[in-house]
Write a structure and sequence with these properties.
Elements: H1 7-14, H2 27-38, H3 44-55, H4 63-68, H5 75-98, E1 104-106, H6 112-117, E2 125-130, H7 135-150, E3 155-160, H8 161-164, E4 175-180, E5 183-189, H9 190-194, H10 201-211, H11 246-249
Parallel strand pairs: 1-3, 2-3
Antiparallel strand pairs: 2-4, 4-5
Helix pairs in contact: 2-3, 3-5
GO biological process, one term: protein folding
Family: Belongs to the phosducin family.
Protein name: PDCL2 protein
Length: 254
């Protein structure tokens, strides 16, 4: 095939044995056709914006030249550019927010209201009240650190329990509280509710997802042999402890 694009045919063309290759279609037309194929799945605004700058005479201008040529933009151009700018701005804000956290941070009781209760309304806050002398607490901290990296849009916090609640019993630790819009949406209190001494990170992830704080693709509880209790209960539960459960919602931060 003399029109086939091969190295051998290129050599024959160089020696004049084959005629010169047919000129491709107009470069702009080719680019527009290519753009149309790639436009599937993209937003209409993305496609219109790209097409606009392909076919306009200022397509190869730099920023300074474009600013000087701004008076030549018609109303449709301006609307398309502004729509594209707004779309990209929203995408950027969304990305920034999703990447805002990404780590398990330590706070103290004095920061509780600011960091937890007054967190942005669209942000889930997961806080672990712990004591470093309890092995299960250290395990939960390790797993929450991993999950914080996996779900950077969620605020993961930890606090030594005595800095938030005085005289809190060790049998209530670990304590994991899940907040949204300043209210407790779920909680896991004690070793059993947090998943037991043989807790796996996948099991903890599943528990948090069941409350709605994070999203995952688990089809069900990864811990098949033990039924773990989801703690989304009324704050009046756990009256058998000497610490009022209202203290959990309103830590002593004086």
């Amino acid at each position: 095939d003399p029109n086939e694009d091969t190295e051998w045919n290129d050599i024959l063309r160089d020696f004049g044995i084959l005629p010169a290759k047919e000129k491709p279609k107009d470069e702009i037309e080719e680019r527009v056709l290519h753009l149309q194929k790639e436009a599937e799945g993209k937003t209409k605004c993305d496609y219109f914006f790209c097409l606009l700058f392909l076919v306009k005479p200022y397509e190869r201008m730099n920023l300074e030249e474009l600013k000087e040529a701004e008076d030549d933009f018609d109303e449709a151009d301006r609307k398309a550019i502004e729509a594209y700018r707004q779309q990209r701005l929203q995408e950027w804000k969304c990305l920034q927010r999703r990447q805002k956290y990404g780590e398990l941070r330590e706070i103290c009781g004095e920061q509780y209201v600011k960091e937890v209760t007054n967190a942005p309304e669209d942000v889930w806050v997961i806080i672990h009240l712990y004591r470093s002398s309890i092995p299960m607490c250290l395990l939960v901290n390790e797993y929450l650190s991993l999950l914080a990296k996996k779900f950077p849009e969620v605020k993961f916090l930890k606090a030594i329990v005595n800095s938030c609640i005085q005289n809190y019993h060790d049998r209530c630790l670990p304590t994991i509280l899940l907040y949204k819009t300043g209210e407790i949406k779920g909680r896991f209190i004690g070793v059993a509710e947090c998943g037991g001494l043989h807790l796996k990170v996948e099991e903890l992830e599943w528990k948090l997802a069941e409350v709605g704080a994070i999203e995952n693709n688990f089809g069900g509880n990864p811990k098949k042999d033990i039924m773990m209790t989801l703690s989304v209960r009324n704050i009046s539960a756990h009256k058998d402890t000497n610490t009022k459960s209202s203290d959990v919602m309103k830590p002593d931060i004086e």
